[in-house]
Write a structure and sequence with these properties.
The chain is α+β, with helices and mostly antiparallel strands and about 400 residues long. The protein has helices spanning about 5-10, 15-35, 45-55, 65-80, 90-100, 105-125, 135-215, 220-245, 265-275, 295-315, 355-365, and strands at about 280-285, 320-325, 330-335, 370-375, 380-385. Strand 2 and strand 3 (about 330-335) form a beta hairpin. Helix 6 runs antiparallel to helix 7 (about 135-215), helix 7 (about 135-215) runs antiparallel to helix 8 and helix 10 (about 295-315) packs antiparallel against helix 11 (about 355-365).
C-alpha cells in the first residue's frame, strides 16, 4: 500500500486510525516503563491510569477539549498511583496538538498551558521536588511544541482552504462572464439579423406594390415582381427561424445608422487594420457567388474578430486571410504565424478570450462550425465553415 493510499484511508477512516494509534501508544508506553531506568516498574493502578489516558486518544477528533482534559486528569492520576514521573504526558501533548488544529490560537494556548501547569504542579507536589528536576518540567516542552505544531497546521489548512475557495469563485466568475458574453453576442447577432429581415420585408413590400401596379397593364413584369416576392419571402422565413433561435433578450437598442456589413466591405476592413499596423495577406479562391445575407455577415464578423485578436494578442503583427468559395459553403481561415499570448481575462487556457465564444456563436447562427487553436508551428488559426444554405 503506497503513501497515497495510506493517506486516503486515514482521511476516510479517522476513528480506526486513532484506535490503532491508541493501542500502539499504550503498548509502547508499557514497554518503555518496564525497560527504562527513568521510570519505576509498572503497577496495576499505573497501567489502568495509562489505559485511560491512551483510550481518550480514540475520541480526540470528536471532542478535542474534553479529551485534553481527560488525558490530563489521567496523567495526573498516574503520577498519584506511581508516585513518580510517567511518559503519559506525551498523550496529553497529542491531545493538545489536536485542540490547536481545531480551535483558534487563544483557546488552544489557554487549554494547553493550563494542562502543562497542572501536570508540573502535580509532579512537584507528589515527588516533593521542584523545577530543578528536568523530568517534572518536561511536559511543558512537549505540550508547548505540540501546540505550536498544531497551530501551524491549522494556519496552513486555513490558507489552503482559502486558496481553494478563491479558485472556485474565480472559476465561477469566469463561467458567469462567459455565459454573459455568449448572451450578449447572441443578442447582437439577433439584432443584426433583425436588420436583414427588415430589409427583406421592405423588398417584398416594394415588389408587391410594383406587381399590383403592373398586374393589368404589364402582366409579364408583374409576374417577375411576384417571383421576387416569393424568393424574398422564402429567404425571410429562413432568417426569421435563425433570428428566433439566437434571440435571448427583448431589450430595445438604438437603431443602427450604417448598412449591415458583408464580404463586399472586406477590402475596407483589411485597409483599416493595415492602417493600425497589421500586415495582412488576403487570398480568395473559388467563384465569389452571392452569399445569403446571414452567411455574408457571419463571415465578415468572424474575420473582423480574428483580426482584432491578432492586433490585441499576437506577438507579431502579421495575418493571412484565406477565403474559399465552394458550391455549398464558404471557408474562412485567418492565420497568425506568430501565435497569440493569452490575455489576462481569458478563462482557462483559451488563447483568445471571449472573442472566440462570439465567433463560434456567429458560425452556429448560420449552421456552421468554427475551430480556433494553436498550430504545430507555433501560430494560431481560426477556421470556420459556413454553409451557403438556400437563398430562394
Amino acid at each position: 500500500m503506497g503513501w497515497t493510499a495510506v493517506s486516503r484511508f486515514a482521511r476516510t477512516h479517522p476513528f480506526t486510525v486513532d484506535a490503532v494509534l491508541a493501542v500502539t501508544l499504550y503498548a509502547l508506553t508499557l514497554v518503555v516503563v518496564l525497560r527504562s531506568e527513568h521510570y519505576p516498574g509498572i503497577t496495576a493502578p499505573g497501567a489502568i491510569a495509562g489505559l485511560v489516558v491512551c483510550a481518550t486518544i480514540v475520541l480526540r477528533r470528536r471532542w478535542p477539549i474534553a479529551v485534553l482534559a481527560l488525558s490530563t486528569a489521567g496523567a495526573i492520576a498516574a503520577l498519584v498511583v506511581t508516585h513518580a514521573v510517567t511518559p503519559y504526558p506525551l498523550m496529553v501533548a497529542l491531545a493538545a496538538y489536536t485542540v490547536a488544529t481545531r480551535y483558534d490560537r487563544k483557546l488552544a494556548w489557554t487549554t494547553s498551558i493550563t494542562s502543562a501547569v497542572l501536570l508540573v504542579l502535580a509532579g512537584m507536589i507528589i515527588s516533593g521536588d521542584y523545577l530543578g528536576n528536568v523530568a517534572i518540567v518536561q511536559p511543558v516542552a512537549w505540550i508547548g511544541m505540540a501546540t505550536a505544531a498544531g497551530d501551524a497546521v491549522r494556519i496552513r489548512r486555513a490558507y489552503v482552504a482559502e486558496v481553494e475557495e478563491r479558485a472556485r469563485r474565480a472559476e465561477q466568475t469566469r463561467d458567469e462572464v462567459a455565459a454573459r458574453r455568449v448572451a450578449e453576442e447572441r443578442l447582437r447577432i439577433a439584432r443584426e439579423l433583425h436588420d436583414l429581415v427588415a430589409h427583406r420585408i421592405a423588398v417584398i413590400n416594394v415588389h408587391a406594390g410594383v406587381a399590383g401596379h403592373l398586374v393589368r397593364t404589364q402582366p409579364e413584369d408583374a409576374a417577375e415582381a411576384i417571383e421576387h416576392v416569393r424568393a424574398a419571402s422564402r429567404s425571410v422565413l429562413g432568417e426569421l427561424s435563425t433570428l428566433l433561435g439566437v434571440l435571448r433578450n427583448s431589450e430595445d437598442s438604438p437603431a443602427p445608422t450604417e448598412p449591415t456589413p458583408g464580404l463586399a466591405q472586406l477590402d475596407e476592413l483589411v485597409q483599416s487594420f493595415t492602417a493600425a499596423g497589421l500586415t495582412i495577406e488576403l487570398a480568395v479562391a473559388g467563384a465569389p457567388d452571392p452569399l445569403p445575407d446571414m452567411v455574408d455577415l457571419a463571415a465578415y464578423r468572424i474575420i473582423q474578430e480574428s483580426l482584432t485578436n491578432v492586433r490585441r494578442h499576437s506577438r507579431g503583427l502579421h495575418a493571412t486571410i484565406r477565403l474559399t468559395h465552394r458550391h455549398n459553403a464558404v471557408l474562412v481561415d485567418v492565420h497568425s504565424p506568430d501565435g497569440e499570448r493569452p490575455p489576462a481575462d481569458a478563462p482557462g487556457s483559451s488563447p483568445a478570450g471571449h472573442g472566440i465564444v462570439g465567433m463560434r456563436e456567429r458560425a452556429a447562427s448560420v449552421g456552421g462550425t468554427l475551430q480556433a487553436d494553436h498550430c504545430p508551428d507555433g501560430g494560431f488559426l481560426v477556421s470556420a465553415v459556413l454553409p451557403r444554405g438556400s437563398e430562394g
